[in-house]
Amino acid sequence: MTTYKVNSIGTIYNNENSAFIQLEAPYIPALKELDGFSHINVLWWFSDFDNEDFRSVLETDQPYKKAPEKMGIFATRSPVRPNPIALSAVEIINIDYISGLIKIAYIDANDKTPILDIKPYTPSLDRVENPQVPDWCSHWPHSLEESASFAWENEFNF
């Protein structure tokens, strides 16, 4: 098995009042020309779930109410996985290019979560016109915007 070294480039701060990304000083120049993009893809580390027990889980009991009784971990968005990497598309509210602070609308990460990378969201590469999903989750929202008002608490078994 090959291993790789990955370094955090910053931290997600997330509470009931705001969400933002604070880049480490050496990475601030990488923000150049990000203005104009409305959204970014944020790759982050499920740091609260990084241990050998969680990394060995390959199947899980029904995590979603309408899902099959058993699911492979790759068919879920669970933080419990072989490599605890997450991907979230987020809306940019403001970028402070001097301090390296990116204010975002929302992210599904815990406070003080490490960031691995940021990429601009581009519809030509990141949007699928007609994605297909299994019947058990076909009633879920079709966009990030619709997700904001969806009753996600009614979907999970945890």
Give the topology.
Elements (H helix, E strand, L loop, with lengths): L9 E5 L4 E5 L15 E7 L6 H4 L3 E3 L8 E3 L12 E12 L4 E4 L8 E8 L2 H4 L17 H4 L11
Antiparallel strand pairs: 1-2, 1-8, 2-7, 3-6, 3-8, 4-5, 6-7
CATH topology: Elongation Factor Tu (Ef-tu), domain 3
Q: What gross morphology would you assign?
A: globular
| CATH uppermost class | Mainly Beta
* Whole-number count of domains: 1
Number of strands: 8
- Calculate the terminal CA-CA distance, rounded to whole Å: 32 Å
Overall pLDDT: 96
Class by alpha and beta content: mainly beta
CATH superfamily: YaeB-like
CATH architectural grouping? Beta Barrel
Radius of gyration: 17 Å
Sequence stretches where pLDDT stays below 50 over 5 or more residues: none
The biggest beta sheet is recorded as: 6 strands, antiparallel, barrel
Classify the beta-strand content into a percent band.
Answer: 25-35%
Protein name: tRNA (N6-threonylcarbamoyladenosine(37)-N6)-methyltransferase TrmO
Organism: Anaerostipes hominis (ex Liu et al. 2021)
Family: Belongs to the tRNA methyltransferase O family.
InterPro entries: TrmO-like_N (IPR023370), YaeB-like (IPR040372), YaeB-like_sf (IPR036413), YaeB_N_sf (IPR036414)
